[in-house]
Amino acid sequence: MKYAFPDNFWWGSASSALQTEGAREGETTWDYWFAREPNRFHNGVGPQQTSTFYQHWKTDIQLLKQLNHNSFRTSISWARLIPDGIGEVNPEAVDFYNQVIDELNEQGITPFITLFHFDMPMAMQDIGGWENRDVVDAYARYAQICFELFGDRVLHWFTFNEPIVPVEGGYLYDFHYPNVVDFQRAATVAYHTVLAHAKAVQAYRAGHYAGEIGIVLNLTPSYPRSQNPADVKAAHIADLMFNRSFLDPVLRGEYPADLVALLKSYDQLPACKPEDGFLIAEGKIDLLGVNYYQPRRVKCRDSAVNPQAPFMPEWFFDSYEMPGRKMNPYRGWEIYEPGIYDILVNLRDNYGNPRCFISENGMGVENEQRFIENGQINDRYRIDFISEHLSWLHKGISEGCNCLGYHMWTFIDNWSWCNAYKNRYGFIQLDLKTQQRTIKKSGEWFAATALNNSFDKE
Ligand code: BGP
Fold it and tell me: Which of 239, 453, 212 is nearest to 356 (CA)?
């Protein structure tokens, strides 16, 4: 069967500043943490050893061209642009981002730009990070500066990438700095991130720029083990905590009442100011980026909560390992292709069918060198992964979902936070020692799909 996509469908990939650029002047929480606890990073590889986009941006953009991308998302590094977060703008950073943006446009690749992809300037973390409302204001100033500098040539902006991840990693589950485990502080960080988002949207609207502004959320559809009311309730609470805590404010302009009531009943609500509600209502977006990697399967808890343990989302559910689920064993994530369709249908039916696109989807695999044939990685599994997901996305579009494109994570193998270079995601293989880039089979497949705006599959 032939799967054809609408005209002007966005074909591309996503990356981020910290994961690709390499060394910079402004310190981030990642540099700081790595200097103190290198053992937390796979093989002790830190954020300075990346795919050197800062040096190779021009040839890398040629590679994007070879992959027939018509669009590409990356982020601006707040710490590179404004090393202390709030003071002077670094003119070298302005030159760098101008060159990248201009070159992308010249090559016919529409730049999609994220303002914050997990990389908090250390100077901002030193004053409390997202727990401090001054950081919200500093971020709004940074966003405004970006719009002024680049808003004439960047028409698709994203305030945050996966804003729940720094909340989970930094304040609940100990996989990002500052390694705090405290739900109320996590809720404060999440809440202030939503305020920061809304302030950036407000600034964008006030500037009457030509483009559009949105956010990128990692949506993990919550599937209950069974239709037993206890399982259904568990899935509902997981959905409130992990999806709707960001989805509702950015699409509906307010938080779900039952999420607020739940946190209130456990005395976990962040401090709110009366004017916050108006601001959040102004943060409604034009375009939603959806990152989809895995579903979340849950069941009701099997055991009682230890009342001495820190309050956690898991007080309300256990994760459920469905027998027979398909796994990506390297990342430990389930692969469930219909999830992409379920997300789109939920957006269509419950959120007014917003303009959206798949902003990340991907498969990280370890030791891909074992698949080299005639000098090229033959990543058949990645082609299967993409085409299966695309067939479900296609079904969503044919049923009226407003999905405008598909971006993969990622174009060149890059540095993945604590996993460093353990799992490789790229269309292009990176030799870490020589920095040589070689297109994988999946890159060729994607280039053909993008060119034809369609692909064939049994
Ligand atoms: C997303 C992030 C990316 C990227 C990707 C792969 O959550 O937006 O930055 O890293 O996941 O995940 P990981 O690197 O953890 O394997």
Answer: 212
- Which position has the token pair 């990438």? 161
For ligand 1, atom 12: residue with the closest CA: 416
- Rounded distance from Cα 416 to ligand 1 centre (Å): 6
User: How far apart, in whole angstroms, are the C-alpha atoms of residue 413 and residue 422?
Assistant: 10
- Kindly state if the Cβ of 30 falls inside 6 Å of ligand 1: no
Query: What is the structure's pLDDT at 23?
Result: 79
315-356 per-position pLDDT tens digit: 999 999 999 999 999 999 999 999 999 999 999 999 999 999
Q: Is 366 a catalytic residue?
A: no
Q: What whole-number distance in Å separates Cα of residue 35 and Cα of residue 30?
A: 8
Alpha-carbon distances of 346 from 219, 240, 353, 414, rounded to whole Å: 11, 14, 8, 32
How many whole angstroms separate alpha carbon 374 and alpha carbon 39?
A: 36
H-only helix segments in 70-172: 78-81, 91-106, 122-126, 133-150, 164-171
212 labelled catalytic: no
Ligand 1 geometric centre to CA of 228 (Å): 33
Contact predicate 170/119, CB 8 Å: no
Chain centroid, CA 42 distance in Å: 21
In order of start, what are the domains of the chain with their CATH numbers? 2-456 (3.20.20.80)
